[in-house]
Amino acid sequence: MLHYNFPPFSTGEVRPMRGTSRREIGHGNLAERALQGVLPPFEEFPYTIRIVSDVLESNGSSSMASVCGGSLSCFDAGIPLKAPVAGVAMGLIKEGKKYAILTDILGTEDHLGDMDFKVAGTKDGITSIQMDIKIQGLDLKLMEEALAQAKVGRLHILGEMDKALPTVRPEMSPWAPRIITVQINPEKIGDLIGPKGKTIRGIQEESGAELTVDDSGLVTIAAVGAEAMERARQMVQAITAEPIVGETYEGPVKSTTAFGAFVEIMPGTEGLVHISELQWGRTEKTEDVVKKGDRVKVKLLERDERGRLRLSMKALVPKPAGDAAPVESSYAEGAAPAAEAPAAEGGEEGGERGGRSGGRGGRGGRGR
Prior knowledge:
Oligomer: single chain
Distance between the termini: 100 Å
Largest sheet: 5 strands, mixed, barrel
Number of domains: 4
CATH superfamily of the largest domain: GHMP Kinase, N-terminal domain
Order of helices and strands: EHEHEEHEEHEHHEEHEEEEEHH
Structural class: alpha+beta
Number of strands: 14
């Protein structure tokens, strides 16, 4: 919002100061519209912005001065405007077919002239425009000239503003409250709030920040200092962050099984490191590589349609040169495979197996 105040003493008048006049409301709306188009979206800068323009002396366009001053004040306050905005008031003196277009008119030129044409905008375009005329219409060619001349004036003013404050200050005032928003998955709202609000209250108590969350999953974090705000943001993200495929995470091994290990990469979020993904080469037992409680780094390879996470430890380690999977066999080195053994030996072997299994040896003896 932009509040524009034009007290009587700004023009040397002596009269009572009462409520806001229609003129002040109109000029304030014009300046506000000029700046609205370059404001950052609420998701990026969730502040209520109030600009107050107190006109202390006037012999020109105080509404266009409010645009220039408002733009500079936003830059000074650390509000990330998309571009600086300036405005200029154009005038017209017309007698018959003769005319003169005036730039940045004074009070007398406004009073005696035939047009008051206010144009505000950035170097790339116009954001707000207003015209008062005292003659019966304007020629299109005259309008084109007035807009072109207004652009020259606007760019000159922007150049002077750039000398005073070329960019937005990187940080807001240390006394300004810090407010940021974090968008989370709506399905994670319950995790953030916790049972009877226990989790979100714990974040507020530990960080000193205030948190609110709406049904869309937009979390607003407000804090007096940047440190408290950042601490609260990290805690919110730790609870609600979604794993990203291809990213690297570090976490404890929660349990081991014959087919791999389960690693917690985020609070309450676990994934499986299959035994084949523990290291390069063959792994006989999961416990040969990791044990419960170990902290390991893993890479998220995949997330299936059921939300299960497939992790890998070996993906973070270069593959050894010449590494090949060992050839495994179930027979002693130098012995012939069972498929190549003589049939008689196969029969005897079958007979022995039969004997051990309780009276089925005779079937083995008929091997040939």
